[in-house]
Structure formats: C-alpha cells, structure tokens
Amino acid sequence: xxxxxxxxxxxxxxxxxxxxxxxxxxxxxxxxQAMLGxxxxxxxxxxxxxxxxxxxxxEPLALPEELSYEALYRHVVxxxxxxxxxDMAFLGDGLPHYKVPDLVPFVAxxxxxxxxxxxxxxxxxxxxxxxxxxxxxxxxxxTGFEAINASQYDRATSLVEALYTAARxxxxxxxxxxxxxxxxxxxxxxxxxxxEGTRLTYDVVPIDPARGTVPLAALExxxxxxxxxxxxxxxxxxxxxxxxxxVDGLTDLxxxxxxxxxxxxxxxxxxxxxxxxxxxFGQEGEGADILVGEAQHLAIPPHYGGPGLGVFGxxxxxxxxxxxxxxxxxxxxxxxxxxxxxxxVMVLSTREQHIRRHKATSNICTNQGFVATLTxxxxxxxxxxxxxxxxxxxxxxxxxxxxxxxxxxxVRLAFPDTPFWNAFVLALPCSSAAMIETARQRGxxxxxxxxxxxxxxxxxxxxxxxxxxxxxxxxVRLTExxxxxxxxxxxxxxxxxxxxxTLPEVPTAYLRREPVGLPSWDGEQLRxxxxxxxxxxISPDRTCYPLGSCTMKYNPYINEVAASLPGFAQLHPDAPxxxxxxxxxxxxxxxxxxxAITGLPAVTTQPVxxxxxxxxxxxxxxxxxxxxxxxxxxxxxxxxxxxGTNPATATMAxxxxxxxxxxxxxxxxxxxxxxxxxxxxxxxRQLLTRYRGRIAGIMITNPNTSGVFExxxxxxxxxxxxxxxxVYMDGANMNAIAGWVDLGALGVDAxxxxxxxxxxxxxxxxxxxxxxxxxxxRLAPFLPGVQVVRTAHGYALExxxxxxxxxxxxxxxxxxxIRAYTYLRALGRQGVRRMSAVAVxxxxxxxxxxxGHFPTLxxxxxxxxxxxxxxxxxxxxxxxxxxxxxxxxxRAIGPFGKLFLDFGYHAPTVSFPEAQGLxxxxxxxxxxAELDRFADAIIMMLQLVNEQPTILHTVPHFTPVDRIDDVSxxxxxxxxxxxxxxxxxxxxxxxxxxxxxxxxxxxxxxIRAASAAKLQDKQ
Length: 1019
Ligand SMILES: Cc1ncc(COP(=O)(O)O)c(C=O)c1O
What we know:
By secondary structure, the protein is an alpha/beta fold. Pyridoxal-5'-phosphate binds at residues 365-366, 549-550, 609-611, 643, 645, 701, 705, 730, 732, 754, 769.
C-alpha cells in the first residue's frame, strides 16, 4: 500500500454510538445539566469543590489539543509508519515471532471476551473461564505439567514467582537459588531487581564460553557449597545463546540435592517432533517441579515486547497433591452448577492477595488473561499438525541457514559441539554490531549482538533465531547479504555442498518421546465455538458494568486498530533504535503526558499492572532509603480498606510482617479509618510515634475504596515526610481525579495509573493490564528500566543513574501503551478533566437516585461527597426478611449481586472493602437514560427481594448456568484435562441483549416465575 494512503477502518464508527461521542462520553449536554440539576449544581467543577484548593491542578493541562476521530486515525497510522518493520527478521532472543493463525484476530475482535472483567461472577463469565481453561489444558498437554495457571505477566516475572514458590515449598525454610548463566540476561536483571531487599538470595553459575551451556560439574560443586540453604535450581531448556541444556542431568541433580528443578522453556518448541516435555525430564522421567516460560509468540506479534504471556506451571499428581497451593496467580477449575451442569470457576482463590493480603502467595492481581485466551485459540487453530509444522519450520530454517552461512569465509558456530534447535550463535570475522547495521540498511533485522554474554568475545558474536515466518527466499537473501559483507565461500577451504556442513546433533534424550495429541478441530467450528463462548459474557460496550474500583468504562475500537497497526505490532524490541522511532516517540510523549496528568516530574512506562506499579514504588522506596543509609526502615503503613495488592506488594518487596501476639513488630501495619471514612489521623500519629525511624512509607488509595477523597492527604504526606518516610498513592481510582488534582502538591512520591481502568485498556477477562508510574524528584534517579529521551538525532534510551533495574522484560505492555496514547490524543487537554468530572457526576447522580432506598457505607458517612464510586448495602428490614428466609446477613450480599445478572448487568463489587457492601462505579460511558434504567433496575431488585426473599436462594436465573458450587470445585480441584472433543457451550436462558430490550417489570416477572419453578424442583 502507498505510504500516504490511509487504509479504511475495519468498522463503521458511526454505527457505534459511544465510539464517536466526544471524549467517548455519550451523555448529552442536556443529560449533564439534568444530572447536575438533580444534585443542586450547575457546573461540573462544583462536583470537586470539596477537594482542597491547595492541591487543585492548574489549568490548562499540558497535553496537546484533542484530535477528531478522522485526524486521530490518520495520526496513529502515520505514527506507526515512522517505525520500520522489514519483512525479514532473525531477531528472537527469548521473544520469537511466529505466524499468527487467522482465528486469533477473530477472537481478539469478540468484544465480550476482550472487554470483560476477571471472572469473579462465574455464571456471567463462562466464556472467559472456558477460554482460560482451554489455555491451561493446551499448555498442560504441551509441557506435561498438570497445573498451569491462567498466566503471569511475562517469563521474567514468572521466574521470580517460581523462586518464591520453591522457597515456600522448601520445608527447611531454604531461600537460596542457583540460576544458570544461560538464562536470558533480561530475565536475570528482573530477578536481581525484584529480589533485592528480600530474604531470597541467588548465585548465577557462569556458562562455559566454549560450550554456551553451564557445566553440570561446576553447578554441582557450587550446589554442594550452598547445600544447607539451597531451595532450587533454575535452568533454561534452550539458553540465551540458543544452546540446549542437559535438562535430564539438571533435573536429576536438583532432585539428588533435594531441591526444586525450575525449568524455563518455550512451549512452541514442545510440539510433536520438538523438544522433550518438561513433565518428563530426568532419567526416570518424573519431570521438573516448576515450569516457567513465555508464550506471547504463540498467539500475537512482538508488540515491541508486550503484552507478554508468562507461563507458570506446577506438578499436580500423586506425588505433588499440595504444591499447587503455593503457586501464584489464578487457576480455572472444573465445576458444576447447582443443577449439575458442567461449568468452570476460579479455584484456590483463598491463596490470593484479595483474601490473604500480606500473607498471599503473590501480589499479582491483573494477569495476562486475554493473551492466554488468544493462545488457546492459536494452539487450537493450529492443532496437532499445525503446531508440529510451526516448530519444525523453525528448526529446518535454522539448520538450512546455518549450513549456508557456515560455508562463508571466517564464519563459524560459536559452540560447534553444542546442540541447538532454532537459534544459534555465529562467531563472525567482523563486528556483529557493524553487520547488524549494514543489514538494517538493506532492510533486514539481522539478529542480536550477544558478544557481551561471552567473556573474551571481541564483539563478533551474533545470535540468529528462526521460526515459521521465514520462507526459502528469505534464507537465500540472508546468505546473499552475508556474502555481500564477507565475500563468497572459499571454494578451496569450504565444503563443496552446503549439506556437507556438519551441525551438532540433537541427542534423542533431548527430544519429545510421545506425540502431544492436541485436537485438530475445524476452523469454522472453532469460530462458532469462540463466538458462542463470547455470548456467555457481557461487555461494557452494551451497558453499565458497575464493578466498583475496576472502572469498567468503554474501550474505544480505534485503540484496537491503533495497537494492531503493523508498524507498531510487528516491531521487535531488539529492532535497531533507528527503526523504532515511531514507538519511542509514543513512549516519550506518554512520559510527558503523565507528568502533566499527575503533576509529578518523572515517569516510568515499564510496569504492566497496578500491583506491579506498587512493587516498583516500594522497590524505589527501598533504594532511596538504602542510598541514605537507612536500611532499618522495615515498616509500611497501609489502611485497612486498601486493596489486597497493597499489603501483598509490601510483602513481596521484602517488608515481611513479623508479629508477636497481636503486636506487629515489622512489615505491614494497618491504619484505621476515621468516622468520615478517611484515614484516622490520630491513629496515624500514634503509629508514627510507635515506629519512629523505621517507617519506609505509607500506601494510600485516593480516592479511597469507599469512593471518598482523602481531604487531609497533604497533611498526612507532610507528617510522613517529616518522619523520613515516603508516600505511595494507589492510583486505581485516577478516573475520579485525573486533571483535577496535582499529586505533586498532594505530596505523593510514587503513584501508579492502572491503564486498564482509567486509560481505556480492555480488561481481557483478567488482563493484560498496564501501568504507568509517576514519581517525585526524590525517586526519579531510581526509576526502573530505561527512559526515552529526545536528542538532536531522534529518540534514544537512557538509564536513570541509580535505577533499581528492570521489573519486566523490555518495555512492558507496549501494545497497551499505544492504546492509552490513542485515547489520550482523543481526549486532549480538555477531555481528561471532562472525563473524570463526568465519571464523578454519574456516580453522584446514581448514588442520589439510590440513597433513599439503600443505606450508604461506611455508615457514618452518608453525606461525605462521593467521587467516582459509592458503596450501598441492604436496608435493615431487608436483612431481617432475608434472615427469616434462611439467608444470613453475611451470606446475603453475594446472591443480591447475582440479581444484577438477571437484569442483564454485571454485578457490582461485592463485599469489598465492606463485608456487606455493593460497590458501584458507573463511569462516564453511559447516558442519563442508561443510568436511570440501571437505577430503576436496582430499586426493583430490592422490591423483589423484599416481597419474596427466597428469590436469593435461586439466583441467577437467566445465565447459561445456575449458581456454581465452588466449594466442591475447591475440594476436588481439577485444573486440566486432555482435550478430545470440543466442550459443549450452554446457551443463555435469556440473553443479556434480550433482557436489555425487556421492560424491567417483565424481567421481574420472569425472575419470579423462574425462581418459583426452581424452588419447586428443589422440594
Ligand atoms: C484499589 C486497587 N489497587 C490495586 C489494584 C491492583 O491493580 P492490578 O489489578 O492492575 O494489579 C486494584 C485492582 O483492582 C485496585 O482496585
């Protein structure tokens, strides 16, 4: 296509009412005036009058002017074209790039799967649950591991979680690890960053530069020295130099030492005909203990490094029944509904941060769920044969290229005796960097210069990686480019025929023994199957999705188009910077925009979720205190109402809680809330005295999880700073204040933005999310990763002087940053403030409509002005009626939430942070009419329950399945199965779209009838 032509959009935006509304706010001017009027207000800014003037943001916001829809589209296309993505690349280096089956973009377009939240309401989320279950099953089949979780951020963070898991499993409290030097350096950097200041320790065992692998003898020797403290050995199946490790020997060594064998693998290479499944490693075939990997490339293009897909697996067999309970993240399990229908549900949640808080096994919350969904689709679309072919093509391309290149003068394999699979390192007769640049000028991204990984290298080592993307012509062209640079084969010195070049053989012991046995389902049937799964979910596209604290706002279609533009999506993170200028400019602009939005002087775009942003914040706190010699600061103050990730993050950062009786000696200390729902300042002062000199910082959610702005934040921050501590603001609720509150003036030292909340990134049924963390000048030198800087010669990368290191491989979820950027360009300087003000207006208006029917929580604060969300509970009289019908007060709220499903909505957030609360966040994405119908529906739900409390025994009625028996699912946990036939998909009994067309009274009538029938059946 001509580089000036803008391709047509793949949809008609005018047919999507929210898509073309200014700032994606569909409420009309009359709507807004009417809602303001009902609150006795006339202007949007009156909604935020209670925020102290001293912390208000000065106008105008330093953002560019908003772009019209057409201009925005043109802009993102042109921006993507500033990158250069050649059609020939041999990059890889832990993030290869394969062909993407057509089913993947099809599934990515199923909005109910892509935009739904984490499946906390399983009856309305069977679509998400099934796709994640399929992912678990496919990966279990490929790896031989019985329990694969529903994803981690990426391979690097998955490795860190594996070390924590192994330490927990180690009965003697061992905390030391040996990591093979052949692991990816990017991953080792993340390990270094995240283990700093924790109780886990490790040594990296260097590779043998002649072999590219780590000698077992050296490893054994080092293991013997650390025998008393060793908890595990982490090793790659294919190392960062392309060499295959002796996985049987490594597994057996770990087991002889009584420690966990942690393997890092690439699932693509485990297809039939490929490498040995980790579940069968070892002479006896008992397998490794913990599995770590990256699977992004199975489903999506590189996206300049992310979203990634961290694979994490555990054994779950007769010998390892309980290990899985120490695993991080979410698992989807087999279940049944009350009527015995097959269903899926999240299991083992009691390990997770939202329940266990500082005792959780990990702080991960938002994961990479939708990439897992897409990976299931990709594997099933390829089927057994397609996976085998993709794996085999990478191998054949690698050996063909090696044979051709090794004939050239001075070119040899860096490790001639070590087997490789689809990547190898060449020792060149010239500088690799020069070779890469010359190839770039000829339109090829040649490979990665790995000289720094090899002691003694003279800068001449080049890693080339292969996949199913290279055609024979590409390999010919590759050889031609080498010949241009190095000269033709020397007829005297080189073998006459390429095929006579001898490559190291892959021992049969390294290869898979049995076929994987993946199903081969028909492509058309798979489309129908995934479409039916999507219909089991709902999307904020259609109507209010009121999950408090989750900001389920509309996710513009144009963001998706922007993120999938080839110039952005196909770009590999190892591409030369000169070819990545379009993406780097986006990153640079995002840094600038978020400085403006937060009022803070520095920003990192590397974190990939709120919880990871928190961890970055606390790691920077530690680095800051260390730099001042204040390593004794071992306490973090966190309000009781905080999200579970806050205390879990503090623990993961190294602030482990030590208690003596009821007294907390160190770690996470809870602050009480005052009667106004805000932090109790008197209690805070007591804590500051009690822990004087030992407080590393405070974590405050603002607005807090009751939807109330912490009006004394500035005072709290000043108290904290006076004590030498730092202030973290959990910015999950930025949708309420973005553009209105200057966080610098508030006294914030670090804040995360959940881009998957405020900045319109779809939740994907649990992830991937994204986060941008802004910091004060104190913390700027410690920022993770790299900063993008603008120079006279274009955009470049710079390491902050005292950086804590990277927290995620590459640049985080870059695809999501493109989405956030596209959204911000649509909002412009006026839109950010308008967006938050209308979000607050919607919540205030809805609260006003419901206040007369439902009490507000916290009980003492009915009149504290709410921001973007509010919490209600059932009236006392309703609780009494329910108790009389056998539904105790503590069990009433969950079922009441299920009534929302019957009216075609998603449930609000139930029982958090108030046990009897329904936390409602409507967002700015709906019209007044939509909010009115929603309010009327909630009022009608109350009427229904008052008139017939037993309805809560039978809810929900119209979803594909009845209430799911998660107690049994957690007693007999089943997290994978061999896939043979396509699972059945149960239809909605009344589809949400149909419910949306029905009068509320008709829905109520249908509920009464359905409930009566169910009660009769139960008798
Ligand atoms: C208040 C709050 N803090 C932190 C988090 C964690 O963010 P993430 O899920 O992006 O890791 C959430 C997520 O729901 C939240 O609501």
